[in-house]
Batch of 2 targets.
Target 1
Amino acid sequence: MSFDPHEPPVRARTCALLSAGILGRTALALVALGFLTLPVLAAGPERPVLRGDITARRDVITLGDLVSGAPAELAERPLFRAPALGATGTIQVRRIMEAAAHLGVEPPESGGRLQVTVQRAARRIAAPEIEAALREALARLRGLDAASLSVAFDGEAPVLTVPVDLDAPARAAEVTYDPRSRRVSGLVTVGERQASLRVSGQVIEMVEVAVLARPLARGETVGPQDVMLERRPRDAAPPDGVADAASLVGQVAQRALAPGQPLRSADLARPDLVQRGEAVTILYDGPGVSLALRGLAREGGPLGATVSVVNPVSKKVLQGTVVGPGRVSVGPAPRPASLAAAFPARP
């Protein structure tokens, strides 16, 4: 074996290799530690993000309303004025960026949006509630029957828009009423006059009338679902209109009737339980005596009607009351002789 004087001794080479390996492993460990710690070192405050379309409940729009992750000490800082109650508006994103930068806040992430839509929350008090406030005032101040009144407002149906947190009922104040022209006006307010609207119109007295829900042909019987009650202006209701819908069930149309029209007393009648020329049972109930015999109806009639019947044996004509289908009661006779003639003894 030859010896090279330039080659380091074996011990020296071994030490050098060991040193190099240790240094390499140490370097790898440091690199790995660096990768593990980099995300922790890089993580800082989250970047503010634009919230998108919003609903405003106040008069102003703050930084916190528009930007998620805004600094707590700046979140309530007003930036823009909100739209009117119930209205909708837009804010350009660039203006939000400028306002945030002016406050020293990092421009929020917009997600590519160019504008933000803002809707102002509100509670809408519509015409029925406004009308109810006027009717209540007329009943209180004028002694009118609020349940029978309606108000036809001038122009379009009024609407009063109030903040959502203003939950007080509508009240009518400064009410004036002319009984001759039936004109009314008043100031409808909510809360301590936090919102108000002046309205005017015509007071109309209403009545309930029975109307048909479907057409009826002549002779057709009214069913429970065929008739209903509706409120109509008194001036437009017939003077002989019927207000008791239940009483019409079972009655018969006297002519063809269209749906929706107020029913008059002559439009319907109770069905005839006795027909003219029909063989009927004549009943007599008196003190200690009860008689029944066959007879003939000279005219027809409904329940409770007075009709003429004939005893075919005696040919006597009697006046009786219809008490059921084919049954007529003649009641106690005022003169026994007449009764005996009408009801001859059987052999």
Note: The helical segments are 10-42, 63-66, 93-102, 127-142, 336-342.
Target 2
Amino acid sequence: MTDPFYDSNNIFAKILRGEIPSYRVYEDDNAIVFMDVMPQAPGHALVVPRAASRNMLDADPQTLSKVIPIVQKIARASKEAFDADGVTVVQFNEPAAGQSVFHLHFHVIPRHEGVPLKPHSGTMEDGAILAANAEKLKAALAEEL
């Protein structure tokens, strides 16, 4: 069931409705994937279900069952596209856990051995870099699908 406190005007809901531009990588009936504008590493992407859920605590299990395979595909494509040694997948629930956008989403971050994550600083990445990283991820995803 949807949390009665879900804010349909959160930034991800606006991106889902096309009200705010994003560097989209993938979309289907269940989710969209776009580049994080404040990446913690090159290739940092977000998987956002279309269903209105505040976070994993209130998400319909059907939503989760449809989104997790997409998270897996994006993780595999990220590892390939960014020649990563591994991939970090992160999902936050409520402010105490670090959640700042209250629409369920998964961070998929390519990782390289010995390279720490950059802080989520509030500084937006250059659009040309985000666009180029989106294209890299799209190309690898095409091979994954």
Note: The chain has one domain: 11-115+122-144.
